[in-house]
Structures are given as structure tokens and as C-alpha cells.
Amino acid sequence: MVGGDAYKRGGRRPESEEDLGSGGIVEEDSGTLFGFGETNASSSGVDGSSSMAPMGVFRRRVPDKKKATESLDYEIAEHSVYRAEQAKRATWHQYRYLALKWALALVVGVGTATTAFLINLMVENLAGLKFSWTIQAMASSSAGAYFLYMIFNVLLVASSACIVTYFAPQATGSGIPEVKCYLNGIDLPGILLFRTLVGKVVGSVGSVAGGLAVGKEGPLVHTGSCIAALLSQGGSKRVHLSPKWFREFNNDRDRRDLVTCGACAGVAAAFRAPVGGVLFAIEEAASFWRPQLTWRTFFTTAVVSVTIRALMNACKGESDCGFFGGGGFIIFDINDGQSEYWIYELLPVLILGTLGGLLGSSFNYVNGKLTQWRIKYLYKNHHSSRRHVKVIEAMLVAFITSTFQFCLPLAFSCRECDPDIATCPRPAGVHYGNFVKFTCPGDNQYNDLATIFFNTQDDAIRNLLSSEMEQEYSPTALVTFFCFFFVLAVITYGISVPSGLFVPSILCGAAYGRLVGMLMTSITGNAEIKEGTYALLGAASFIAGAMRMTVSMCVIILELTNNLSLLPLVMFVLLVSKAVADLTGILPIYDLHIHIKKIPLLEHSSERYFRHLSASDAKSKTCVQFGRVEKVGFILDVLKSHTHNGFPVVEAHPTDRVTNETSTLLGIVLRNHLLVVLKKKISFMKDPSEVVDPVLAFQYDLTEFTKPISSQGVKLDEIRLTDEEQNMYVDLKQFVNTSTYAVQEDMSLAKVYQLFRGLGLRHLCVVPKATGVLGVITRKDIVPEHVEAQYPEVKHLSRTNSYGKLSRSPSFGSFSKTKDLGDSLIGTP
Amino acid sequence: MVGGDAYKRGGRRPESEEDLGSGGIVEEDSGTLFGFGETNASSSGVDGSSSMAPMGVFRRRVPDKKKATESLDYEIAEHSVYRAEQAKRATWHQYRYLALKWALALVVGVGTATTAFLINLMVENLAGLKFSWTIQAMASSSAGAYFLYMIFNVLLVASSACIVTYFAPQATGSGIPEVKCYLNGIDLPGILLFRTLVGKVVGSVGSVAGGLAVGKEGPLVHTGSCIAALLSQGGSKRVHLSPKWFREFNNDRDRRDLVTCGACAGVAAAFRAPVGGVLFAIEEAASFWRPQLTWRTFFTTAVVSVTIRALMNACKGESDCGFFGGGGFIIFDINDGQSEYWIYELLPVLILGTLGGLLGSSFNYVNGKLTQWRIKYLYKNHHSSRRHVKVIEAMLVAFITSTFQFCLPLAFSCRECDPDIATCPRPAGVHYGNFVKFTCPGDNQYNDLATIFFNTQDDAIRNLLSSEMEQEYSPTALVTFFCFFFVLAVITYGISVPSGLFVPSILCGAAYGRLVGMLMTSITGNAEIKEGTYALLGAASFIAGAMRMTVSMCVIILELTNNLSLLPLVMFVLLVSKAVADLTGILPIYDLHIHIKKIPLLEHSSERYFRHLSASDAKSKTCVQFGRVEKVGFILDVLKSHTHNGFPVVEAHPTDRVTNETSTLLGIVLRNHLLVVLKKKISFMKDPSEVVDPVLAFQYDLTEFTKPISSQGVKLDEIRLTDEEQNMYVDLKQFVNTSTYAVQEDMSLAKVYQLFRGLGLRHLCVVPKATGVLGVITRKDIVPEHVEAQYPEVKHLSRTNSYGKLSRSPSFGSFSKTKDLGDSLIGTP
């Protein structure tokens, strides 16, 4: 077992620096790893624009094939091709872009809703078939029924584990941590691919129908994100359906927005909670939020809501959806529950909150330990046998789960039905609902443990939250259920199947919540107080303890139960539970798994001690940088020998006095942009002092510079250069992001962190202290009114887009007229 | 009338640069206005650390009394006093701070809820008394009743107008635009003072009870914010209740969080919609949001919810709350309404959305024109007569409103009651509810126009949304009501009383919504379709058209109606209406008023043409800056002659070669910090080359450096310096924010804007291009794990706070042990 304090936020410390980079997780570029001689540390050592000096010792050659975890490029790189692209755009382009954006949001909504519906349909039908067969078999022999039930479950889970393990390894688990990381700016390999989507959907059906202690809600968030990411791909090149205007969203920035919509759609579809979906993204999933996104995600979830309703209505009609019908979507609807509350109920709510906080964080703690143990001991073998272990593990868990589900209720005596309730016991031939008869002999008997254990989990939740009958469950049944289910949930989350955590959390919480409710009704004797209400509050408390969501969970519960009167109680239980869980110092479950996987997620606020460090403490001592004009062969060498993804470009200016050179930072050039330039070759020039023809920028296509999702873009192998080409030069100024953010060396790291995290940067230059100040910008200076007053021509230009009217002839004669724009278009040579 | 395109976002252009600064609104510092000779433009011209050179011509002396609109300091200024304060802090300090933060959130919640309850109590009682007297008087004479009603209203409104005009001018209007500006970082003078709070509460009671077409919901947001801001003041110095630990929140950064909580609490109290309150802040009010804030605002609104419930229960019991009872809080509860919808209902929803978008934005347009006209012609006179005009205007509006409310229903014939409805007509002696009898002669008759016009507005909303009776209103009554009420609402918003916009918007929207509903029921003949539902959808559409809120409005409506089944319809009507309204190009009402008042609000995204400009285009050509060591008298002169609030401090380094000086930017020093230094005098030194004793920093108190709300802090008049003192020196390095954000001159303005807006800056230095690059920071470098691995001692320091153990003796002997920290504490001399 590794150090326990790894769970605490303050204690997140890898064993060594190398540790952080191991496992293919943090093979992040830093631009600062390798030598370049000491000369690099100060600007005076950089020797000029066409620095052909040897780049120092290249310590290792990085295999190009290995796909490491990289950051995403949320920054717009303002290089000449980008500016040229802007120049080409007419006004209608903007409208097309906007229309397409909304159309994609619509498609994401419809797609996610349909997928969610299909998953539900398949799960309900498979589970219905399973229970139907088992109950038929039970008439003849319990043992036979058990074997049938167990085999059915193990097979389903095995299919799920196989597809996840052998075909789509990224589809394992809940997917919410992965989506959260993606939206934080981390490009985990393969998490948003089509194969992951398939694995998630099929695997989810298998694991949920197979009776595991998992839900389908978490995986739906991942599913929605996958659908959104695939739509942003701009069609498929393989089937030759990739129009240029459709490829426009194939960049990290637009994709981030779409994936956010997808995640919202996933939650909205899972719980039929459209507003909850939007809030989930705001509170939990998204790291960057813009007001415009609120509106767009809202639209997406509205579409989801309507689509699911339409699909469910279609199933209600003539068409036969098999066992799908009463079950499926709305998890619980306790309209018949409590509609008033008394002030003394705050005490049990406090108790529930505390319980939820403690139990939720113990869940995280134990599950985290188990996950670390799995990584360290269970999965330590080499690739293929590790995969077999995973499948066998999943089958074993399925076997244990099935055995508990079937055998435990056998040990429980039957309870008498309330004669007023017509559906007690559940009529023969119905495979969902309350009051499961199981093996009970009498006509008016039901088995209370079987009602919650030997049932689909959606039904189990409904039954636990039901207010149909007081004392429906014996305390022993509830305690037994909680203990076994808690253990099952702990061991299940982490095996190689898609597994959501909402449903197990709700079930665990509802079990002890109902216990507290029973206590309350017997103590107070108040007939208005319902056990079901406490079950709901318990569910909320466990979720808040394990996941620490408050507002979004509150709205989701609101939308699920359709009962607003209990809102203050729900709010308080969530607050207490989260506070207690936070006090334990154990991380929320998703963050815990992110931390165990050593993914460099950037939280919103920096650590306190960051204020004691400065920017120059964080950057490494040396740095690989290019001069303005570099030899092609040299660039290729650097790319081959370094994994960095961004290289600063520095231009030297010989001043009057020969001995005193000054240099300036031009900006950062990205690795994949360099690869495109090397592959395309049109920017090569024979003479390093040649002046770049600005029209060259128009010969590139901006979409060439963007990487498709989970891909490296142009690969090093694709670049074939002759010796002659290798001896040519490239003026890197054209491809530099001229608006690179830079901080002075003495800025406190806390503020650097703020900047980096707040703007979603990938590279941040650390520069020497500024040589004086040219001016100060304040609020007034950048209010659009003021800027327009100063530069009325710019507004006009922006409106009529005379930028687009620039002649594209090689002479660029018209440029002289719009000098300012010409400058910013190509950059003065 | 001024230019119509001022309404469109693209057309927001002041007539001249001076225009922007006029009216005391944008007297913003820019640090860039005045000459300093040409030498300033380049760093080489700054002549050294103890630059005693004359500062050029000071063109105007700024009167110190005038309180101009400034920006707020959301940035932490990391100067030596701040670092010393950090060093003094023990670990428990952090817990006290946290506990206090939550305690304040609790108090804000309780305070806002209580205030909201009191306002409701007073409004209901005053309005109840009014209607009771009027109805009694109607028995004898209609004319007498009219005069009684009218006089009552005019007096109430006059009292409201007087208190607002003569006592608390900032309490006028809804207050939401002001709060929005405050949270954007603009310190509008006086908007969060105690007198404004009093004016808002008392004025709100008067204007709402006086029957004006205004609501009390908008003002409650402002009320909540005022309460929060006052709590952050850290007690009152006047009553000697100002413990030091309590003053800790007396800074712009912590106050922003508290005011956000207050705004949430206001919405939560107004609509009894706790989740809606949080969302309102996220979507509309707040410009900066942190995940931690979600939780804290959520807590505040939960407290509000429970407090109001408790207070209302207290009123239900023995205690006599007068006319308060059936009315008051929950505006509408249409649980008895429609619970299903059909696909063909999307068409009327589309129509309603379009109508709402068009009518909502016409409301904005006309109201904006009227407001401009008022400013230009009505209020153009000198101060005191302008104030009388405002009061007379308010009384006139009250007179017109009362006359319409009383006389229009007289022109309408009575309608027969449905005999099944027991409360039709409203029994005598009851002063609230549906089916107002008014002057109807028959026992089973009611006047439909009086039901919505001659009633409190809360009741009018309930009646319009009621599904009790089909065809309750004649189409003529609805059309008449809409037309007159729309006009009344347009002329009322903008007069000198506290006036919310939610209630008028809901009433306008509900009127045409109900019309569409009547059309639908008569066309489809579907008995399940309720007119009340359409009234609700209409209300939503008008709000979305006028205010453009979507998610928050949706949740508020959800919480108000306690009916989730219509969620998709509500979502669609909101989306359509917002889209249509946005297409008209007319700004949302709050933004429109912000724009008319010429407040430099920074929107989230910059204008498109910002990408064509660069940082050096935005900054002015010259800039006032200090050398590192400056003469006291010189600093005082600069402060007297400039309004700037931040001054860059530059240090010159004589290099080996005498002719070639280099200089570096140390950071920005703030005006109010300089004033504190000049007042306290302890940092003065006789010799400019003296080395600063680092213990000096401990003799300041950090709270001295923070400005109380709506105050200038230390004033120039307070500084009395002898000639000798004026000839002494100050080393400004101690008071400089060493972590000043700076951008290179060629960074595109779009990115500058992003940085400025995203981090909530007040000053941003524009510096020359960097002389090379020292390194690059990437994600990996600032992940806490990595930083801790590199600097294990820092983590330890942060935890045990050995910072706090630093000796405070003048010798500072212990400093050598913790060299790094000593450096960052004082800055190496």
C-alpha cells in the first residue's frame, strides 16, 4: 500500500520527478528540458537570427510512435496563415459558422438522446429477459434458477469486459474524470474516439444488464462527449465526406465547446434533467465557461429532453419495445411523498449529512486504495496477460454480485403485504416493480431484500424511495443490503467495464436514509413524515460525500423527483455532507482517480505556497529556442530529438555597436505547425536573408494546421526531405504566434498559475524584466467605445470586412493603402 | 433624439473621447494621459533611480473632492506590507478567516431574507389598507373612492420619490445594472452605502404599495448586495465596533464574493427560488466566478429559503401580521395547471417566443429612448430643480397609473361567475384573490379587467396565470390591459423610485400569453390545454425578450410554479424569444441602461476588430512613471496633478559602460497606497541611497492599505508635510506590486482584452518586446505535484507556516536561514 496521505489534497506528491512523467501520462513538453549550453539562460547569449550553432547534446531520441498525453491548444495561434485565413473570410462566413455551431449542438442533442434511449432499451430488455427466465426457472428449482441467473450475468459482464479490454480500453470506468480532464485542456489519448464510443455503449449495456453495482449515467456523459467530439471532426476522410466548411470545428477550441455540450447532453439524457445537465457542466465538468456556452448547452439539453420524450412516446404507442415500458428513464418520481417538513427534521438531516460525508469519503478512500493495489499488483504483468486478468476479474465480480443478489434474499423471511396495496406482491409475469415475491410461499407475501437486491437497479431505487407502504423493509434487510452493496460498489468501480457511480451511490445512500427515516417515524409518530423522503435525502448525502457536487445535484434531484417542497432539506443535507467529506481531507472520487492516474489536472486555485515562488522557479533552467531564420535540416533535427511542442523564436538585432547585440522574443512556434511547414515545403528559401513573400500565407489552408482529435497531425515519418531541401532555410516569423503570453521572471507563481489556468494556456514564456514601460492600459482604454473613437477605421473594416477585399496578387500593391493591416497581416519583415 | 444605432452592440460609440469621460462616470485613471517629455516613450530615456527631473507640464489640477467612478482592485498587490502580513499569520488565522467567511454568508442570507420579508409585510399591509378603504368608499361614491385611491397612491409614490431623490439618489431603478457593474469591477460611487440600502427598502415599499407598474424583485437584488457590502465593512468606526479581525473583508476582492452572495440572496428571497438565485448570479450578475463561490452562494440561498419559511410560519401562527397572509411571497403556484403537452403546441410556443422577443426588445427600445430623452431634456436643469422635477414626474406617473387602474375597469361590463367556483366573486372583506367584484351589481358577477388591474400586482399575476376558470377574461380586457400596462411599464422604469422589471414583464407577457392560450383552447378544443399555461409561457417569453436570461429564468419559473412537466416548453419559449430579441440588435434592458449611463462595463468577449489592433494601440503615447527612489514632495505633486490610480515604477541600472544605461520595470504602485505612505511618514528617508530596513513593512497594517467601500481612503487634504519632509525620499520598491501583469507591445488587443477581463485587472503595463526568453512554463511545470517535488521545503513552509516564525527583530538575523523567503518578503535591495 502506498502512502495514505496521497488522498489528501495537500499530500499529492509523486515519488519523484520521473514518477510524474512515467506511464505515458505526463510526457508533456516543457520547452525547458534540454541543454542548449548555458548561453540560453540569458538573452545575450542567443546568437542571432540565423543561429546555426549546434544545439548542444541531444540526450535521447524520442520514439515518434508513442502517443503521450499532451495539452490541448485552446489558444488561437495568431500567425500569418491565421491572418490570411481571416482576410479571406467574407461576412457571410460568420453567419455560416454560427448556424453550423447551433446545428451541431442540435445534432449532439439528438444523437445523445437517441443513444441514451437505445442503451436503456437494450438494458431493460436484457434484464427483463433475465428476470423472466430466472423467475420461470425458480418454479422448478432454486438452484437451477441461480445458475441460470448467474451464468446470464457473468456472460453479459464478460462481453462488456472483453469489448472494453481488447477493443476500447479507454471506455473503462465512468468517463467523467476523463471528460473533466479533456475540458481542462489535457488530451488523454483515445478518450474521444469512435471505438471508445462503441465500447462505452456496448459495454455499458453489458455491465448494467449484467446486474453489476454500476450505473449507466456516468458513461452517458462520456458517450455524449464522444458524439460531440466525433461531430467536430468534420466528417470522415475515409468515406470522402469531409467538406471544407465542415472541417472548421476541427480545432481544440471549438471542440471544447462542443464536448461541453455533449457532456451536458449526457447528464440531461441520463436523468432527464435538462437544467441539471447544464449545471453539472458548470459545477463539475467544465474548466472554462463562457456566458454564450450557457445558452448553447441549454439548447442542447432542451433538445435532448424533447427527443427522449418523443422516443418514449413512440414506445408507448403501437410499436413493441419488449420489456421496455414502465422502467427506463425517470429514476424516481416521489410525487406521493412528503410535502411539508418540520423544524425538528433538521436534526436527522444533520445526521444524514454527517453519515453521507463519512461514508462517501470512506467509499472514496477504500476504492482509491483498491485502485492503487490493482495498478501495482494485479495489472503489473505484461500487456496481453494483464488484459486477460482484467476480463477474469470482471467475471469474478459478476459472479460474486449475482451470488449475493440471489442467495442473500433466500436467507430472509417473507413479509406480509398491506392488503390495501393492489400490486403487493408483484403479479406474476411482471418483471419490474415493487414487492418482489421471490421464493415466498404465501399469496400475500413478499421478500423485502429481494425487492431491492433481486431487481434492476432503477427499480431498486424506485422501491427504496417509495412511500407506498410504511415499514416496507425490515431494518436487517436495509443494513444487509447497505453492507453488501457498499462492498460490491467499492470493488466494482475500477474493473474493466463502463461503470457509473450515481446509481450505486443513490442505492447506498437510500438504504441508510430509509433506516433513519424508519427511526424518525417511530420516534415522532408523525404520519406525514415519510421514509421515502429520508431515503432520498440519504441518497443525496452519499452523492455529496463521494462526488462533492452541490448545486447540480440539487437541481438533478429536483428534476428527478418533481417535488420542490423539500428543496431546503435537500440543500442542507448536500451542504453538510460536502462539508464533512471535505473535512476528512479525502479527495472527491473523480479527482481521486485523476490523481491516481497522475493526470496533471489544473485546479481552479493554486496552492498557497505558490505565492512564495516566482515564475523563474517554475521554468526549467534552459530552453530550446529557434532563431528567426533557421536551416530546415536543423529544425528537423530538433523536432526529432525533442518532445517539446512549443519553441520560442527569438530575433537578434545587431545594433550600431557591433559588440552589443540585442534580441527580441517573436513568439512561440508550435511543433505541429513546424511539421506542416516541413511537409508542405513551400516556405523553404535558398537564401537566409530572402524577404518572405506575404502571399505565401494564402497558399496554406488553416485547417492543415489543426490536429484532429487524439491524433498527432503530421507525423515525423511523413516528412521526406532531400539533402538540398535540408540545406534550405525557413523564416519562422510567419508561423510564430505573435501574441504569445509572457510573464516577467519575478512574477509570483500564484499569479502565473492564475494566468495559465484562467486563460487555458499551453505555453507561457518567462522573459527577463522589462526594460521600462511604454504605457499602462486601464479599463477605459479597452472599452469598445473608446477604441472605436480612437480607431474609427477599424470598426468600419471589421464590419464591411475590407480585410477580405485585400488583393491576393503577389504584388500586394493594395497593402500600402492599409498599412496597419498589412503590418498585422504578415508582420513587418 | 440621439442616434438610434446606439442601441446596437456594434454601434456603441460615444460622440467623442471627452464624452466618455464626462458626467463623472469615466474619470478613470489611465496612467497614460500626461506628458513626461518624449524621454518616457522608451526606457532608455528614464534617467535613473532617483529621478528628480521635472515631470513636464502639469496641465490641470484635479479637484480632490470630486468622486469619480473608479475601477476596483481585484488584484492582490504583492508588496512588502502584504508579504509581512502573510508572515505574521499563523495557521489558525486561515481557519478563522474561513469560519468568518461562512458566518458572513449566513448573516447575509438571514439579513436579506428578513429585509425581504419586512418589505413584503409592509407592502401587503399598505396595499391591503388602500384597497380596504377604497372598497368601503366605493359603496357610497365611485368618484370619492377614486380620489381616495389616487391620493393614497400618489402620496406613497411621492414618499418613495422623495427619499430616493433627496436622500439616496443611487437607490433609483432596479439596481441590477449597478450590481452587475460592481461585480464587473466598476466602483460606482455610493451604490452600496447604508443610505442607499435605506432608500431602496423604504422607496421600494412606497412604489410597489403605491400601485406603480414596478416590482420589488429587482430592488431586492440591490438590497441583498448592499447588506453584503455593509457587512464586509468590518463594523463601524463611528460606534467603535471595528475589531481588526473583522476588517479583514474590507477589501475589493473579498467584498466581491460577499456581494455576489448578496445578489444571489436577493433573487432567492424575491422569488423564493434558491437555485434560481445562484443561477442568476452565474448567468447575469457576476463577471467572475469561482467554483468555491457556487457552494457559498448555494449556502446563502438555502439560508434565505429557510429563514423566509420560518418568518412566514410565524406570521401564520398567533401573531398578527395584518393584511399579510394569502399574498406575499410565492408569486404563482399553478400546480393545478396543465401537466401534459402535445407536439402541435410547439407552434403557439414558437409564436409566443417570437412575440416575446419582439415586444421585449421594443420595450427596451422605447424605454431607452425615453431614458435618453429624460437625461437630455427633463433633467438638464441645475441640481435642485432637477430633483424637484423628478419627484413631480413620479407623482404624475402615479396619478396616471391610478387613474387607469380605477377608471378603465369602469368601462368594462361585468361577467358572470362560474357557479362551481365558490370564491367567485371574491367575498366582501377579502382584499386579495381572484374575481374582483369592483362595481358589479349582481351577486354572481365580477369585473375581469379589475381582477388584473385593480389589484396588487402579485395577485394580478396569480389571477392571470390561474387555471381556475376557462374564458375568465374577455379578449378585449386582455388587450386593453396589455396595451395600457405596457405603456405604464415603459414610462415607469426610469423615474426616480426603486423599480423592478420582473413583475411588469411577467404581467405584460402573461396578458398576451393568455390571449394565445384562449385561441389555442378554442381551436383545438382540447380540455387539457390550459390558458394559464400559455400565460406562463408568455411571461417567460417577455422576460427572455427584455432581459435575455435563459437558464436562470427557467429555473426560477420552475421553482415558482412547482411544475416540472412543462420544462421543455418553457425552455423553448425562452430560447426562441432570446434568439429573436438578439436578432433585432437591441441590447438587453440592463445592458442598455449601463450603456446609456456610459459605464465602461467589460463584456466577456472582445469585439472582433480587436484582433487587428495591438496593445500599443490601446495604451496612450506617454505615461507617468516613478523612479525607484523618489522625493516625497515630487510624489505629492504628481498625486495632486494627476488622477491616475497606478504608476509604473522603473529602476535604472548603470552598466559598466557609462553611456549605456538599462532599466527594469519593478511594477505598479497604487495611488491609495502612496497616500497611505505619505500620511504615515515612517518610510521617509534622508538619503536616497539608504538601504530600507525590512522590518519597516511590519509597522504598517495591511488594512490601512485597503479602501472602504465607496470611499477614497486617505484623501490628499489629510496629508500635511513640512518642507523638510517634502525634501526626504521614499524607496517605492517596497510598495510596488511586484507581480504586475505586463504585455508586450505587439500583442493583439483581443488577447490583451482577454487577459484584462479574464483576471479582473485594473492596470496592465505595456512593455517593449522581451530581450530573449528565459524559459517556457507548461502545464507540467505548475502542477502542484511537480512544484512540490522541486521545492519540497516550500510545501513544508506553507504548512507549518514558518513564515510566521520569522523574527520580527530589526536585525532580521533569522532571514539568512530562509534566504528565498527573505528575498520574496522584502525584495532584494
UniProtKB/TrEMBL annotation, chains A, B:
Region annotated Disordered, chain positions: 1-48
Pfam families in alphabetical order: CBS (PF00571), Voltage_CLC (PF00654)
Membrane spanning stretches: 98-123, 143-168, 258-282, 341-366, 476-495, 501-522, 534-558, 564-590
Keywords from the named record: CBS domain, Chloride, Chloride channel, Ion channel, Ion transport, Membrane, Repeat, Transmembrane, Transmembrane helix, Transport, Voltage-gated channel
Ranges of compositional bias, category Acidic residues: 16-30
Topology of this chain in the membrane: Multi-pass membrane protein
Keyword Metal-binding in record: no
Keyword tRNA processing among UniProt keywords: no
CBS domain segment(s): 736-793
Cell location: Membrane
Gene Ontology CC entries for this record: chloride channel complex
Extent of Basic and acidic residues compositional bias: 1-15
GO molecular function, one term: voltage-gated chloride channel activity
PANTHER family: CHLORIDE CHANNEL PROTEIN CLC FAMILY MEMBER, H(+)_CL(-) EXCHANGE TRANSPORTER 7
Entry similarity comment: Belongs to the chloride channel (TC 2.A.49) family.
Protein name (record): Chloride channel protein
